[in-house]
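During the no-cost extension, the postdoctoral fellow (Dr. R.K.) reprocessed legacy sequence entries with the updated structure-token encoder. One reprocessed record is reproduced below for audit purposes.
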Amino acid sequence: MRHEVAVGKVYREVLRVAEEAGSDLIVVGAHNPELRDYLLGSNAARIARHASCSVYVVR
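Re-encoded structure tokens follow.
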């Protein structure tokens, strides 16, 4: 198991670390979306859209 501490936009840092590690799967938690999440996209949605590997979103 590996832990990372990063500064920046959550989805960008998750994607960066996953790419550097050669990850096959990203597991990310999601909450019940608010209206603004539908308009802007939540971190989980952005990670799922832009990841080069599989993404498992858990509610």
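The mean pLDDT is 88. The CA atoms of residues 45 and 57 lie 9 Å apart. The remaining legacy entries will be reprocessed before the final report is submitted.
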